[in-house]
Design goal:
By secondary structure, this protein is an alpha/beta fold. It has three domains: 100 residues, no CATH class; 128 residues, no CATH class; 71 residues, Arc Repressor Mutant, subunit A. Strands 3-4-1-5 form a four-stranded mixed sheet. A four-stranded mixed sheet has the order 2-6-8-7. A three-stranded antiparallel sheet has the order 9-11-10. α5 runs antiparallel to α8, α11 crosses α12 and α12 packs across α13. The longest helix has 29 residues. It is globular, with a radius of gyration of 21 Å.
Length: 327
């Protein structure tokens, strides 16, 4: 759980990015390539990307030898790779990376080495010798892997923008932050965010940037360094890629009556035992259904003291909101 502590001044400095950050899209998409989690939501993209990597040996080598070592699926990756300047476009972001002081690059690569194998080219990158090569790699990857998804990205971002804008108009920043449930839970002065480990971030009057990301999956990602401008790259709701059926069956039809009831129960943030009691099934049966729902990306589970708490993901919440279309 990430706990973000607000002051009253921070409430006046909450910002919502109008467009996805291109460097965060690169970062999050590289994460998608390294895991099967959520792959169904990116099925067409994953397939086309694998084809491109197979057919283009230079692209494959660039991703394997340069990008993946810098963006590993680990508890940490260097913050200098996602500078805030990228909100002004990919070129501005790459220029900021190229201009990062050597001392900072060296320090962050040392931190990376504590949780993952350090890139063999670390010293050359820090010295500036490989910065141009990295910039070219990021630009090529974006053009060949991210840009082909532009229509899907814009559709998802527009849907999210409408949702957040309505909340902001109806109730200001308080309503905006509450609109992120179940991804985040807002109760002034704390914004609790689904996160892979416990962490507390004090905004201290700096405000918070909320940046939507098409390739972000399951939970938001924040910068590791608390002294950097606070931001969250958060996931968007996804449709199943390649699903051409215009009719939307009910949740019970998709999941089965019992599993749908279990999913509904997680909207309240309950333990396994509480869900079993609520649905009227045994704890082992509830545990089985929860495992399936979690593996499908519909719920997330967090340990709270001696119990496991189950809550909806944005995808699970979207599924519960679906209503079957009339025939």
């Amino acid at each position: 759980m990430l706990r973000i502590i607000f002051t009253e001044r921070d409430l006046t400095k909450v910002r919502l990015a109008a467009t996805p950050d291109p460097l965060w899209e690169i970062t999050n998409s590289l994460d998608r390539l390294q895991t099967r989690r959520g792959r169904w939501a990116y099925a067409n993209w994953y397939r086309s990307t694998q084809e491109a990597l197979t057919e283009d040996r230079d692209l494959h080598a660039m991703v394997t030898d340069l990008l993946l070592p810098l963006f590993p699926r680990a508890a940490y990756f260097p913050d200098f790779l996602t500078p805030p300047a990228a909100l002004d476009g990919l070129d501005a972001g790459i220029e900021a990376i190229l201009a990062t002081p050597q001392e900072r690059v060296t320090s962050e690569l040392k931190t990376l080495a504590l949780v993952h194998r350090a890139p063999v080219f670390g010293k050359r990158l820090a010295s500036g010798e490989m910065r141009g090569e990295l910039g070219a790699a990021l630009r090529t990857y974006y053009q060949k892997v991210i840009e082909p998804q532009d229509d899907n990205i814009q559709e998802a971002v527009e849907g999210d923008r409408q949702l957040r804008s309505r909340a902001l108009v109806r109730g200001g920043v308080d309503k905006l932050l509450k609109s992120y449930w179940p991804l985040m839970r807002w109760h002034y002065p704390v914004l609790e965010v689904q996160y892979p480990y416990d962490r507390t971030l004090h905004l201290g009057g700096r405000g918070l940037l909320l940046s939507p990301s098409y390739f972000c999956w399951h939970y938001p990602v924040a910068l590791a360094d608390d002294d950097l401008p606070p931001m969250l790259s958060y996931p968007l709701l996804h449709k199943v890629e390649g699903d051409a059926d215009p009719e939307r069956p009910s949740t019970a039809a998709l999941l089965g009556t019992t599993r749908a009831a279990v999913l509904q129960a997680t909207s309240e943030g309950l333990t396994t035992g509480e869900i079993a009691k609520r649905v009227g099934i045994g704890a082992p049966t509830a545990s089985h259904h929860l495992t399936v729902l979690r593996d499908s990306g519909l719920i997330a589970s967090q340990r709270k003291q001696t119990s496991m708490l189950h809550i909806l993901t944005p995808l699970g919440a979207a599924l519960l909101r679906q209503k079957p279309r009339p025939r």
